[in-house]
Amino acid sequence: MIHNDVLRRLRFALAINDTAAISIFKLVNYDMDISYLHAVMKREDEEGYLPCRDKIIALFLDGLIIKNRGRQEGQEPQELGPKERLSNNEVLRKIRIAMSYKDEDMISVLKLADFRMSKGELSAFFRKPDHRNYKPAGDQVVRNLLQGMVKKYRPDATGSGRSAQTSLKKPAANMPKDSKPSVRKPNESRPHTNNKSKNASLPSKKVKDAPNRSVNEESQQGKKQTNTSVWGELPAKKR
What we know:
The chain is mostly helical. The chain has one domain (3-174, 222-233). It is 51% helix and 2% strand. It contains ten helices and two strands, in the order ααααααααααββ. The chain has helices at residues 3-13, 18-26, 34-40, 54-69, 88-98, 103-112, 119-124, 139-153, 164-169, 195-225, and strands at residues 228-229, 232-233. Strands 1-2 form a two-stranded antiparallel ribbon. Helix 2 packs across helix 4. The longest helix has 31 residues, at 195-225.
């Protein structure tokens, strides 16, 4: 799977803004340049796009492990060499460690994306390459795991992270605006009904407006949740 997509979808799922992302890279002793971070968050058809190198996604996942699980004494993160590649299996393994997922947890997250997998099929991805039961993970598995994480941690969000960069900068941009009640003009004609039917239809307007208020209330609650992550409140980005 393209590493840009992994980084973008993972940041969206865990609501990791630019400030938090840079701090994660610092945990593995890497000073991430904000302009490069924005470039690898873009899609291939967007101006200024740069491919996310294997080294960068590996460092981010290692930093996420330290952020969530703590640093192991005597072990320093190892940077990938120029010709080393990070496979889908390694991406899954690092996400699993960072999120403290067990087999059942990963299967449940995959189910949220309507992707079914048995425990035996999943365990094959974490075997050593020379093991007879080892199986290379396809892009579909990684993609559905990240989509399931979006549904698990960002139930208020819409989409699968396609507009992740915009959403992280402007958390409330995708939230619905309060709808204004329609006003009928004085001379606007109504369907032909008698007075009795008009009076009978009046209570239905109150019933119709009630769901709109509940939707707006839920929208306001969703806005308050957008700037949080699985490890708590995120600092606001400096302007």
